[in-house]
Automatic annotation (TrEMBL):
Compartment(s) of residence: Endoplasmic reticulum membrane
Entry protein name: Uncharacterized protein
Assembly mode: May function both as a monomer and a homodimer.
SUPFAM superfamilies for the chain: ERO1-like (SSF110019)
GO molecular function (one): FAD binding
Positions of disulphide bridges: C61-C66, C109-C144, C361-C364
Keyword annotations from UniProtKB, A to Z: Disulfide bond, Electron transport, Endoplasmic reticulum, FAD, Flavoprotein, Glycoprotein, Membrane, Oxidoreductase, Redox-active center, Signal, Transport
Main location: endoplasmic reticulum
Keyword Disulfide bond: yes
Pfam families according to UniProt: ERO1 (PF04137)
Cofactor: FAD
Top-level lineage group: Eukaryota
Organism for this UniProt entry: Elysia crispata (lettuce slug)
Binding site for FAD: R165, T167, W178, S219, H222, R256
């Protein structure tokens, strides 16, 4: 009954599940675990007080485990935004000394020479396509609304003290949120099937690549959230009076993913987790030139140096694995239809990120907001940059492309969640094996 041992290619990618299990569990997961415990990544600034923009928010979760402990600003070992911006400015003015300027100039001349050499070999049609992407780059698609760090209601949360785990949030409220996400914001298959049990199997024949990508991303996120609640589950105290004990709940996991108990849907949903993982991994590798220049400034020199080393080590592993998803296959061509599809893709994703304000459990809302912002940041990276060629990277010096600290923290932590879910599958596999041996 080790159904969670998936095999074969991840749908719409060129990568095997087995390869990812090994890469993640041996290399990515341990590095990320250590990195995400560092100050830069563990404090996330978020507004949990926003009104639900879509329906009247009736469900205030009173469950103890839904509660989020926020930090007082002066407890947080991260310099204030203004001070961080000053630091950035100094860093750039230092960089832009004459020597730096000369280097930049000679690099851009070399780039120009390369481009003019390309001019002769690239068809006019291709150049028109590049031009469209260049124009598109100038207006970066905004997949999420990003709150200013200093705006009202923004508070720091220590993610290590508020882990994503079982909270007891179930029933009508989360169902309304998930239904609104899938039915109103995921694209409908051509034959207008509903989400859930029906939306399965042969997605390829009923949806174009862009729509499938959207659905798989959301489904992969849903899978990850549900794996975490099974992985860190609160078993009630037998006497009914104690606080209960935390542990892995194999039965809950099987209920959600066993093919026999999910009309065959579980394994597909698990595979979507690998898909979402691959997309975010590809985005991180695309942003390597940008992330390598980031200082991850907290104000503590030693801490900052160690984080930069940790990030660099992580990026070198992630960077060796980047040609498994080709975003240039998406939104191909410059037709009105494609432009419309792209606008809808961005709009639907934005809606989903706003729906997170309707989640009726603060802990779930915190992680829901963080993970949609992380995914939105990944999409921003994938559909920005100077080119959409396979394997292309973000130009680190592009003035048009910037990430805020909040986006970087969300991107790394969101990917960390997916990584931890894939790692948890290994635990459920051994629990299932032990269970089988017992019976
Ligand atoms: P649900 O998970 O609510 O699913 C609803 C329906 O969606 C299912 O009946 C099925 O048809 C379909 N479905 C399920 N999984 C998938 C998938 N992977 N892909 C496609 N379709 C699917 N609970 C916690 O304990 N801790 C948390 O941190 C937490 N975070 C949450 C964050 C958000 C944003 C939301 C909306 C909910 C969160 N929850 C959390 C609640 C949790 O996700 C479930 O909703 C809850 O446990 C009830 O589960 P369920 O079995 O009724 O099915």
């Amino acid at each position: 009954r080790c159904f969670c041992k998936l095999r074969g290619e991840v749908d719409d990618c060129s990568c095997k599940v087995e390869t990812l299990d090994s890469l993640n569990n041996n290399k990515i997961y341990p590095r990320l675990k250590s990195l995400l415990s560092r100050n830069y990544f563990r404090y996330f600034k978020v507004n949990l007080q926003k009104q639900c923009p879509f329906w009247s928010d009736d469900s205030r979760c009173a469950l103890r485990d839904c509660h989020v402990n926020v930090c007082q600003e002066d407890e947080v070992p991260i310099k204030k935004k203004k001070e961080r911006e000053e630091h950035e400015k100094t860093k750039y003015s230092e960089h832009n000394n004459v020597e730096g300027l000369e280097k930049d100039l000679s690099e851009s001349c070399a780039e120009e020479r390369e481009l003019s050499a390309l001019d002769t070999t690239i068809s006019k049609e291709k150049m028109a396509e590049f031009q469209t992407w260049r124009e598109h780059d100038e207006s970066l698609p905004m997949f999420c609304e990003i709150d200013d760090e200093d705006s009202n209601g923004m508070e720091y949360v220590d993610l290590l003290l508020n882990p994503e785990r079982y909270t007891g949030y179930k029933g009508a409220s989360p169902h309304k949120v998930w239904r609104s996400i899938y039915e109103e914001n995921c694209f409908k298959p051509e034959n207008n099937l509903k989400y859930g049990p029906e939306l399965v199997g042969d997605l390829e024949s009923t949806m174009c690549l862009e729509k499938r990508v959207f659905y798989r991303l959301i489904s992969g996120l849903h899978t990850s959230i549900n794996i975490h609640l099974c992985d860190q589950y609160l078993f009630p105290d037998k006497s009914g009076f104690g606080p209960g004990t935390w542990g892995h709940n194999l039965e809950e996991f099987q209920k959600r993913f066993d093919p026999e108990l999910t009309k065959g849907l579980g394994p597909q949903r698990l595979k979507n987790l690998y898909f979402t993982y691959l997309i975010e991994l590809r985005a991180i590798t695309k942003a390597i030139p940008y992330l390598e220049r980031e200082t991850f400034y907290t104000g503590d020199i030693k801490e900052d140096e160690e984080i930069m080393e940790g990030v660099s080590d992580f990026l070198s592993v992630a960077g060796s694995f980047q040609h498994h998803f080709d975003e240039s296959k998406l939104f191909k061509g410059n037709t009105d239809e494609m432009k419309q599809l792209k606008a809808e893709f961005v709009q639907h994703f934005r809606n989903i990120s706003r729906i997170m304000d309707c989640v009726g459990c603060d802990k779930c809302k915190l992680w829901g907001k963080l993970q949609t912002l992380g995914m939105g940041t990944a999409l921003k990276i994938l559909f920005s940059g100077d080119s959409m060629n396979p394997g292309s990277t973000i130009n680190a010096k592009s003035k048009n492309f910037q990430l805020t600290r909040t986006e970087i923290v969300a991107l790394f932590n969101a990917f960390g969640r997916l990584s931890s879910s894939i790692h948890a599958l290994e635990t459920f596999r051994s629990l299932a094996r032990m269970d089988e041996q017992k019976s």
